[in-house]
Amino acid sequence: MTAALKAYHGLARLFHGLAPGLLKKRVTQGKEDPERFTERLGITATVRPQEPLVWFHGVSVGESLSAIPVIERLRARRPGIAVLITTATTTSAEILARRLPAGVIHQFAPIDTPQAVTAFLDHWRPDLAVFIESDIWPNLLRTLSARNIPHVLLSARITEKTFRGWQAFRGAMRQLLGGYRLIMAQDDASDARLKAMDVATGPHANLKVLGAPLKVDTEALTALSALVDGRRVILAASTHYGEDSLIARALEPWIRDGDLLVLVPRHPIKAADIRLDIEALGLHVAQRSRKEAISPLIHVYLADTLGELGLFFSLADLVIMGGSFLTGIGGHNPLEAARLGKAVITGPDIGNWEGIFESLVTTGGAWEVAGPRELAFLVEQLRTAPAAIRAADASALAVSKEEAGTLDRVWTALEPLVPPCP
Hints:
- This protein is an alpha/beta fold.
- It has helices at 3-15, 19-28, 61-66, 68-77, 90-99, 114-124, 138-146, 160-166, 170-178, 188-196, 218-228, 243-250, 252-256, 271-279, 309-315, 335-338, 354-363, 372-382, 386-400, 406-414, and strands at 53-57, 82-87, 105-108, 128-132, 151-156, 182-185, 233-239, 260-265, 285-287, 300-302, 318-321, 344-346, 366-368.
- A 7-stranded parallel sheet has the order 9-10-8-7-11-12-13, with helices on both faces. Strands 3-2-1-4-5-6 form a 6-stranded parallel sheet, with helices on both faces.
- Helix 11 packs across helix 15 and helix 12 packs across helix 18 (372-382).
């Protein structure tokens, strides 16, 4: 163990004593589940199945959802194997509750203290651990290696910033990365950075290109379409707090001219604050969670619910992807819209989805703008260009279908590490 890893281990062990109090504070802030926050300490009342168990981990919504096609393939090919998936956010838990295949167990991931990691692994005893993207926790990875539990990293995304940070602890990072039995980078740049750390990699695979179209409640779509009554619908999807009012201000002339702006916030818990911000602009708001109707006087429909994004993609004439107009978020998955035949408009901060946006923009299935002013200008142009929107929608759908071989490539590499059925 390197000196850096020893120091981290010791500090994490001391931190564990403070963790329960900090987690309880996060409960009061709505950041942890009040009934399940002890899972973050590795403590759970859920019984481990007797079958061999494969554990998947994705820190948040995008990573965990991208694992679902792999989980479905695993259960189809190895029906006698139990599957556990962990995430770190309450929002991801709520969404996964609606999207996970029946029988898959969800838990909140343990914090990276030796005590929590030990409790978690003692209870669940995974036969294989599958991590998505770049969530690297030293105590967890070292303990997996010490217990000889094979672990893999799929869809690895290594940014230039992450890579530069690794250089300060190069020996420690090489030791941790070297413990993976398989690493599949999601793009050429990530693969090159891993190889620069002398880490062996497998074939490329970006799990974010996988997935079925989001579910659409056809009855709800019919009802909403009737309420909209021919108005142009502009959807701002997965917005982060602050983007909502930013987008509303940019589009205010068109909203007042009759267009309906639908806001689907990434974190519905902020809905009350979002509503106040929008109403401060003098715009009239209807809120879905309050069952408020869309009347001709409504400017903004605040869709503060979970699991209905497919419905609003289907309703929209234009789609704006959130998480891209503020700094430090990195954008959100445009393929969720593309699979339903919708092109998207994005802001400049798309580092988490750079390769996918590049494909969409290059083929005409997305538009990238530098900020609110360009957004307003583009929307103004597209409002009178329905043919251009239809062409972009078709291009987006085509891009969403291009990576059909990715799941087969992932399964071929992963299968030798999967435990046999009992």
